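Lab channel / #folding
Pinned by the channel admin:
"Please post every new chain as: sequence first, then the structure tokens as a reply. Keep commentary short and put observations after the output so the thread stays searchable."

First post following the new format, from NK:
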Amino acid sequence: MTDSATRGIHIVLHPVSDLARAKAVYAALLGVPPTADSSYYVGFEAEGQHIGLVPKGGPQEMTSPVAYWQVADIDAKLAEVTAAGATVKEPARDVGGGRLVATFSDPDGNVLGLVQDR
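Reply from TO:
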């Protein structure tokens, strides 16, 4: 496995219009309470997956769910996917605790994400 190898989907973020209602539905679906619960983000850990709820799509202006693949080297993977024809939407940035995230669009405009934990 190279440093830029993809290690599977680790996070899926969902834009929601009503955070309180969505939180209740996802808690019932996943069978666990949120591990992060604020006015700007609610996150759940279930079966090794992180499911996040983002009110009104957040600052990223998400309009549909975004799956984030775990990678060892986010910059190398961004370079690899852009060389293959993807377009960087959001370059790598630290979202806290050393976690880096980035998003890109495939040739059809689908938004995909990358996450790297330090």
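NK: The chain has a mean pLDDT of 92.
TO: also worth noting, The helical segments are 19-30, 74-83.
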